[in-house]
Write a structure and sequence with these properties.
alpha/beta, Urease, subunit C, domain 1, TIM Barrel, 2 domains, 8-stranded mixed sheet, 5-stranded parallel sheet, 31% helix, binds zinc ion
Length: 406
């Protein structure tokens, strides 16, 4: 059964103009856009009465296996139990308008296939498998007094430890073997890790270059978790294409991001949420204190990057019970950007990062029929996008998957 949207206000994300038109979907793709389109047999007609319609949203930094903010507890949970959480988390994302997400560590080919086969409802999933971390790095969950680490592949962990050029090559090849769409490395300290400092750099240049070489050999790319300018800049010099967080970047980072055609994926909402609710969702007191170090700097970094012409992409990075704040990132970014610019970061620019340009993030014939129908104009009030209750319908692959009415 195909779908015909009547009387839609279709947003051209590139120009910011609305086109008053009908939109017809066939076999998961946009087939036709025009006025007073005829109604073929076996078509569901949905009259949206002049409601704004955006391309399905893309969140380029999520963790669909983050059942709790206490990430260190996940590897000892049953993977079946974690998968049940993932199904619920992904379902929520779809209802918030996200029809495609890029997982930034934790998801695997099992969840990707389950979504693609319709076994669970959720956004289309791009995954990196386990993030690569050095010993004592952001992906090393051991406390100082713990020596043993269980890296069994059946544990639902977010990362794996590999030290040295040969070992990181093997780890990179192993994640690519399991179908990773991109690779992820931990290139600096972080908030939710027990023994590292935010201002540490992680991995040698030789190790980073080896991961990039392996990714590029497979026509894939590398994303790096990095906070400080020092960590961001060396990651970019090693050929990393996607900088995650980047809260403490500098002018040199901005120059390198532009020069290397790289992307910045800020994740401001996660600090906003961790500050308010982290402890009640399992974040330890010492990690909660680290949040302050990166929260305020994040908005300033985004503003600096945008001014310097960097391509920025929407990311949320929420954990556990905080996933419900996923759309708040729109509101936070609008403190330093125009609504249309933030919408691009979650549509066209995100599609470029995912190498799915023209396929998703755009309303035009032949693109995937992923749509979000809103109850008001987000260009004049971002609240129509930042508050999920203002979403009327979500369409994925030409099927109405969320129906709240208008
Ligand atoms: Zn990170
Ligand atoms: Zn993350």
């Amino acid at each position: 059964m195909s779908l015909l949207l009547r009387n839609a206000l279709l947003l051209d994300v590139n120009t910011g103009d609305y086109l008053e038109a009908d939109l017809r979907c066939v076999e998961g793709r946009i087939a036709e856009i025009g006025t007073a389109l005829p109604v073929p047999d076996d078509v569901r007609v949905l009259d949206v009465a002049g409601a704004p319609v955006l391309p399905g949203l893309i969140d380029a930094h999520v963790h669909v296996t983050a059942a709790t903010a206490d990430l260190d507890s996940i590897p000892s949970a049953s993977p079946n139990y974690v998968a049940a959480h993932s199904a619920r988390i992904m379902s929520g994302m779809l209802d918030r308008g996200f029809t495609t997400v890029r997982d930034a560590a934790g998801a695997d080919f099992g969840l990707c296939d389950a979504q693609a086969e319709g076994l669970l409802r959720g956004p289309r999933l791009l995954f990196c498998g386990r993030a690569l971390s050095q010993t004592g790095g952001h992906g090393d969950a051991r406390s100082r007094g713990t020596r043993v680490r269980d890296d069994h592949p059946c544990c639902a962990g977010l990362s794996r430890i590999a030290d040295g050029v040969d070992a990181v090559r093997t780890a990179a090849r192993d994640e690519l073997r399991k179908g990773a769409h991109h690779l992820k490395v931990m290139a600096s300290g972080g908030v939710a890790s027990p023994t590292d400092r935010i201002d540490s750099t992680q991995y040698s240049m030789d190790e980073l270059r080896a991961v990039v070489e392996e990714a590029e050999a497979a026509n894939r790319y590398v994303a790096a978790h990095a906070y400080t300018a020092r960590a961001v800049n060396r990651a970019l010099q090693a050929g990393i294409r996607s900088i995650e967080h980047g809260n403490l970047l500098d002018d040199e980072s901005v120059r390198l991001l532009v020069e290397h055609d790289a992307f910045l994926v800020p994740t401001l909402v996660t600090y906003w949420a961790l500050k308010q609710e982290g402890p009640q969702h399992g974040l330890s007191a010492s990690n909660h204190r680290k949040v302050d170090e990166v929260l305020d700097a994040g908005l300033a970094a985004l503003e600096r990057a945008v001014r310097g012409g960097v391509r920025t992409v929407y990311g949320s990075d929420l954990l556990g019970g905080m996933h419900r704040h996923q759309n708040e990132e729109f509101r936070i970014r609008c403190e330093v950007q125009k609504p249309l610019e933030v919408i691009r970061s979650a549509t066209t620019t995100a599609a470029e990062l995912l190498r799915l340009e023209g396929e998703i993030g755009v309303l035009r014939p032949e693109a995937r029929a992923d749509l979000v129908v809103l109850r008001g104009d987000p260009l004049t009030d971002i609240g129509f996008l930042a508050t999920p209750e203002n979403i009327g319908y979500v369409v994925q692959d030409g099927i109405v998957v969320t129906d709240n009415g208008l």
